[in-house]
Each structure stands twice: as C-alpha cells, then as structure tokens.
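Q: What structure does this chain adopt?
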Amino acid sequence: MPTPLTDLLSSDAFATMRRQAREQLLAARNPAGHWTGRLSSSALSTATAINALRLADEVAISRNEPPQFTSEIRRGCGWLLSTQLADGSWGDTTSSPGNLSTTLLAWSSLAAVAERKSLTQVELAAAVERAARRITDWTGGLSVTAIATALATAYGRDQTFQVPILTHVLLANRFGDYRQASAWRAVPPLPFELAALPQNWFRLVDMQVVSYALPALIAIGQVRHTFCRTGGPVGWLRHATRRKTLKVLQAIQPANGGFLEATPLTSFVMMSLVAMGLDQHPVSRLAASFLAGAARPDGSWPIDTNLATWNTTTAVAALGAGGNIAASLSTDDRRLIRDWLLAQQWRTVHPATAATPGGWAWTDLPGGVPDTDDTSGVVAALATLESDSTARSTKAVAAAEDGLAWLATLANRDGGLPTFCRGWGRLPFDTSCPDITAHFLRAAAAWPLAYARHHKTVRAAQRYLRRTQRGDGSWEPLWFGNQHHPTQANPTYGTAKVVLATQDARAAGWLIAAQAADGGIGAGPGIPATIEETALAIEALAEVAGHTQDRQLATRASEAIARGLGWLLEATASGTTFPATPIGLYFAKLWYSESLYPISFTVAACERTATLQQAT
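A:
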C-alpha cells in the first residue's frame, strides 16, 4: 500500500514545486554562470559607514576643502530613518527585532549628522530622540559608563565588537569631544602592539579579539592610545610600535580597500585613522573608496559585499543532492562553474591570517579570507560537478587534494575544525564547530583516495562530533542562529548538517521532534518555522530515511518529510516565492539574510527527497 510520502512524491504538486524551485535557482545565476546572491541591507553597516564618511568630510571642511560624501551620507540617513522601528530602535536587518548594539550605532551616527549645518535639511531630531529613549531603557542612561557597562554585559570577555561600538559612539561625539582623554577611559585598550609580532606567535598570547579582527585591533587600539595614552613600559611599547603596526595594517588591506569585504570592519578602521589625523593615509583613502562603492542605490550598506563562493557551492550541492546534477546543468555549465571555483583557490600565503595556500574564501573579491567551511564546500562541489565524468580533470583533483590537506592542517587538538585559524585562543571563531567539522567529513567522503589519506583527521573529527552532541541529540552551529530561539542558537541547522555527514539516528529523532503539527520546522520545538530550517531538516531526514536499517526510524522520518514538504508547498507557493529569513550570523552575532538560502535549501530538500521515490 503506498505511503503518504510515496503519494506526495509521485504527485503533480511535488513535481511542480521541485521544477519551479530548481528553475528559480538556475535563473539566479549571474552572467558569468555562477551564483552571487544578495545579502540583506544592514542598519549596523549603514550606521558605521555614515560615521566614517562623515568624519572624513568634516576633516575636509576644516581644511576649506569640499566634502566628498554628502550624497552617500544623506541617502544613508534617509534609509535609517525609514527603517527605524516603532520603539525607536533598529535591528540588524529590517526583519530583526531591535538590539542595543545596532541602535547605539545608528543613534550616534544620526545625532552627529544632525549637528552638521550642511545637512540640516534631513529631519533627524525626532528619530534621534526616540533612539535615545530606547537606549536609556536598556542601559539606564546615555553616559559612557552606562553604555560601556551594558556592552560589557552583552559581550563578556570578547572585545571584538564592544570596543568598536564604544569607539564609534565616542567618535560621533556622544560623550563629549572625542579628543579629550576622559572620554576614552571607559574604552578597554586593545593591545595593538601585538600586531608587530610574527603572526605565528598570536596563538601564544591571550588575544582579546578573534583572529580575523586584526585591522580593528590595530586601528582602534591606536586611536585610543592617541587620545588616552597608557603610561609606563606598556605605553612606551605602544608608542614605539605605532609606525610598524600601521605598516602591518597597510600590508593586510585588500586591493579594493575592504577588510574582509565587510562594511563595519572597514568603517571602524577608517573612522579611527581619520580621527587620528590620518585621513590621507593610503589605508584611509582605500577604505573610503570601498565604502563609497559599496553603498546601495537606496542608501543602505550590506554586512558584506557577497557570498559568491559559498552561494555557488551551496547551489551546486542542492542541484546535485539527488545524484544527477547533469539533469540541471549541462556539461558546459558545469565546466564553467568548475573553472571559476578553481580560479578562487588561494595559491599564496594570505597576508591577513597567514593562512597557507590551498583554501577558499566565501567570496571572489580581494577581501575574502580562506576558511574551512568554504574550502569544504568547494572540495565537495568539485566532486559533484564531475560526478558523471569517466575521469575527473587533473586540475580539479589536484585542487581538491590541496584543499583537503589544507583543512587537515587546521584541525584543532580536540579533533574539530575552526573557522579561520587553528585557534589563536578561546574565542568562538577560532575554536572547533560541529557543523563546520561535519562539512569537512562530507568533503573528504567525496574523494575516496583523499579520504583514506586523511583517515586520522577524519576519525578525530568523528570523535569530536560524538563528544559534542548535546544530551537531546542535537548540535549547535556557529555561523547560523534563530532570532526566536531562547539563546538565539539554531540547533536545527547544526543538527541537519551533522546528520547529512553521519546519519545519526538520535539526531534525526531530534529533528522529527522539532517539527510542528503543520509540518513546518523552526530552530527547535515551539519556534516559528522558516523555509530555510524546514528544508534543511527535510534534506537531512531524507538522507536518514534512504540509508537507515531501522525501519521504524525510516517510517517516522518519511512521515515527517511528507508533512514538511506539504508545509513547503504552501510556504513557497509551489516553489515560486522564497522570502528569506535572518538565520545567518556574521561576527559578534550580527544577523543577516541571504536571498539564495531559501531557494537553495528547498531545491536540496526536493532533490534528495526525490531519491526516496526512485528507491521505492
């Protein structure tokens, strides 16, 4: 007797959703034949860019020179005014609840602009007042002490973001004249002098910021030292290393000026240098050019320029999830994507992180940094793109082997893999992560010979996943979260990614239990469902249903898949509409959505689930 899932998979409704979702994904390719995507606009990015450009313009005006960025600042302010929430706050995206960090940045930028006589035509006073009231609700006041205390409570030991926020607010003159030493005493000094050390020493010292935040460490550390010098031997050392660390900053700046392709990081660096009187420094000038070029027509800035490599490998994985990528991409299309991916591999030591050759970054732009998740994604994608070839290309094989060897060198002592560097310290992005580790396992499994070559790393990664599985059977990821989850975590994403690599039965049971009665799945039981999370869970459960020997589990998984597909049919209007949800996290838990995630994840769910029909 046919099961409900069998009936659904053979229905016109499923076939239509599968076809239309796949068509949408294919249509989203750029003219070069791969995927770029579109990140959500960010109030946080917009606020930081406004502040950096405003400072540069004010320096120009003080020299009787014409300001260069009036139009970008005015448009950015207009966008912030249009996206302020009713309570006076801003969230990281226009679909996010308000938070203290973003509201502080937007409030201080708008307030500083409101004081510029050349921009008084922008109606800002009311918005600034509403924001000030909301901040006071959170912090108890607008003093530097109240705000610094609130930020320290929010971020704890990790100074990666709390110090830049305080610096931004200071440089917007919200605590008085930023040139006065008294305003800086609540800002923790960053040890920028450490940047003068060889990079392979960084893991030996107690860094207070994550590995990729070196530009902010140097620039913000220096601007505080400029106006509030530390005394004694430490102060002397900092003064003595200023010139050398500025040279380090210049050496690690990408050719287009954008550190990590990130507007906030680039803005923090630029505003710090400009405040120090270094507005004509090459780093400042390049950063200004990047920020001006990154502004969108509506006046906003995204959190990062693009995730082209990540989106391309995610799309390839989705189209190939059923084992027949040739049904979606022609031989020429696959070759085009393969060659583009091969061209993105880092063949030199990366100047910012000293990463050895062999890895891939999330983007094809100069500010990208090789990382484990994207390297795993490309290695797996190269295998998928040539899955129907009688012989894989020599270049693809060599690149994949180099990529896997690169990944193996990053494995931490606990067996897991971090994001960028083999731990500089104990901060999140340098420590091991379950979903990133699982992604490595899938990449290694796609290349059997290389899998055998790295068997020790593979076994250690498997042990790491077993040790880090939570008591309820789930895993939590690092770079993804859910705004409705009590701790803003996203165990659905983390668990689904590990299940795809391990087919873990207990984890599959957790995904089934997370499903709501209507078939949708959020970040856990009782949390509102999203297209992204529902599709991720369906794909993982389809992997389990197709391979488990436990017939009871296979039945439960199949029933959950059928309910989930029914929910997706309605939520995507049969594969025609894909509203994106902010489930992505940037550094320091900054939320973003990506337009391609719901499409790619839905295609992956449909393609992998379709294999169950073939098996039947």
